[in-house]
Amino acid sequence: xxxxxxxHRGPTHTVWFVGAVGxxxxxxxxxxxxxxxxLEAILLGSFTFLIGAGTVISHIAAxxxxxxxxxxxxxxNETKYTYSVARVANPLAxxxxxxxxxxxxxxxVGLATRLTAAIGF
Length: 121
Description:
The protein has about 120 residues and is mainly alpha-helical. The protein has helices at about 15-35, 40-65, 90-120.
């Protein structure tokens, strides 16, 4: 998806954005877990931080597989990182990454289910 005025592989593909998304999702998870207690809020907040940050990291890593690469430390460091494994239009690479994403999402749902059951949610 494109955001008006925000270039693809721009600010949303940086470690700063990873941190912002992680903090936002972690805070939301802690708020949700707060009703169950402090420990539950910490556990759920930590878990949702990892899910939020991990989601953005995986997208940045996938874009680094292409020749266009990413600049994850911009604007402080403009070094471009690329592995040049596959072009963006490569259907085999895209389907493989889609399958990996499905497996990761299923794993996250499974972990979340176990975590919420363990804390009595």
